[in-house]
Structure formats: structure tokens, C-alpha cells
Amino acid sequence: MGVGWFDRTWIRYGITIGVVAVAFLLRLVLTKWVGPGLPTYVTFFPAVMLVAIVFGFWAGLLATAMVAMISAYWILPPEGFAIELLSDFVGLCFFSGMGVLISVVAEFYRRTRQQAHERSLELAKANEALRDLSTRLLSAHEEERKRIAGEIHDTLGACLAAIKFKVESAHLEIGKTASGSTEYLNTIIPLIQECVEECRRIQMDLRPSILDDLGLLAALSWFCRRYQTIYTGIKVELEKTLEERDIPNSLKIVIFRVTQEGMNNIAKHSKADLVHLSLWKMDGRIELVLEDNGEGFDLKKVLGSESTKRGFGLTNMRERTELSGGSFAIESAEGKGTTVRASWLLSGNN
Fold first, then answer.
1. Which of 7, 59, 123, 128 is in Cβ range 3.0-4.6 Å of 55 for a Cys bridge?
2. Side-chain half-sphere exposure of 230, counting CA atoms within 13 A
């Protein structure tokens, strides 16, 4: 990183000399207007303060020394460095002491501001690193879920399907010879089928294959149908006003997980019978909105320090949204339902 323009020593001291010279010329002009009653250091105090605040202690000290010499030689009678009046000498000493004090205080102020700026930069870098780490952890978590779902489908699911096929074949063979001996197999086949369905459910919960195969919009439609099958008392209205190509690949799993968590919260806590789920694109943004007509809740109470399971779910939704570069908002009140909004600015519109 190059040296800043003001960080060059000769420039700092050159500007300091220029500021003192301007203050001296300004005092000469004011003396002609006001007369000899003009205070000696009326233009010099601001000059010393300015260079001390901007350039630090040594620049302030240089300005103070220059003003002292200029005052002793040109302003205080008689001309030259001899000072006749005690009051002029005391005034010059007072100005010099104040100049040194101003320089010290200004240097302390500059260093404090510089340290605060450096710490804010370090904090910003640490937050960015933490955000990057959290994003990587979420990605790794999703990849692991995807791997486990694939393993369940390819191994356990295949094994159970093969066992079911063999048992059904044995059932048919035994049934040809001794019908009474098939009763035990009749009880085993439904159990195996139940295991197959359970493996399929676990696999879809971990990572729905439809999301990777057909995309987010198809996955949301499938999820809403399955949701209404499980929670028969809740009607889901799905509104989609965008195309699959409008959704970045990195956001598809995020939107699906936020929807999944929000819908699960509704089923567990809201006592709603109607949910409106909308996903749309407008003005370079993608927005997901979940609205229910449930009993609502007190935001401060739920999101407070004494977090509940619902609060934990909402926190997960917020973290997923914000870590993916989006914004998250909740609107709710007791007896008035809940609205959850998550939106993302598309990268081409930054």
C-alpha cells in the first residue's frame, strides 16, 4: 500500500509553514481594519489548532515556534527579538505553552481516532471472516446432508427394496404350495414397505432430490403438496411470479430451507389454517414471503434472551438469509398472524 499524500513529511511541514504564513498575512490585513487594538494571536491560535489536529504534534510544535518568532520579531515592539513590555513577554510565553498543550491534545486525539479506525477495520475483517466461515459451514452442512441422503437412497433404500422383492417372491412361491404358511410373511411385507417409506422420507428431509433434479420451483410445489398431506388442517396457497432461471443456484437451497423452517414453525406454533407462500422477482430483487392467519406472537418475547424453540427457528432463518447476503424481517402481533419476509439483491444489480 502506497504512502498517502498527507503522510509525506515534507508536504506536512510545507503546508504547516504555509498555514502560519497565511495567518500572519491575515493578521496584517485585520490590523489595518481594526487598528492596534487587535489581539496579538487572534489568527495564530486557529492556525496552530488546525495544523496540530490535521498533522499531529510535531507540526503543531513547528507552527507554535514559527508564531513565537514572528511575534517577537515583527509584531511585539520594538522590532527585532527584544521585547520591552513584561505583559508582551508573558503573553508570548502563554501562547507558546498553549501551543504545546494544543499540540499534545491534538496528537492524542489523532492517535485515538487512528486506533479506533484501525480497530474498526480489524473488526470488519473479523466479521467478514466469520461470515465467510459460517457460509462455508452451511455449505459443508448441506453437502453432508446431500451425501447422507444419497447414501440412504443408494444403499439402505436399495437393500430394503431388494429384501421386499425377495420376501414377496417367497410369499408367492409358498402360496402355491401351502397357503396357510404365508400368514407370517403377510405381516412382514407391510413392515418392510414402511421401512422403505421411512428411508425415503428421511432422504427427502435431508436433501430433496427434486431440488437438484428439477429446481427450486418444482421443489416448493412438491413441498406444499406434501405439507398439506401431513397437516390436513392447513391450506397452502403458493404464488410464483418468476422463472427457474431467475434464481441463482447459490440461493435455491437457502430459499428452500428458509421456507421449510418457516412452514414447520407455522405447523407447530401458529394454529393457522391458511398459509400464503409467495416467491417473486422485482427491481433486481428476489423476495420470499410467508403469511399465516394464526394467533401471532410477541416478537420481543419470542426473540428475547429467553429464546424458545420458535425463536431458535426464526434465528436460523435469519442467519441463513443474512449469511447468503439477504435481508430478513418478521411482522407479528398476538391475534394478528405472522408475516416473514426474506429478500436478496441479485448480484448484477449491486
1. 59
2. 11
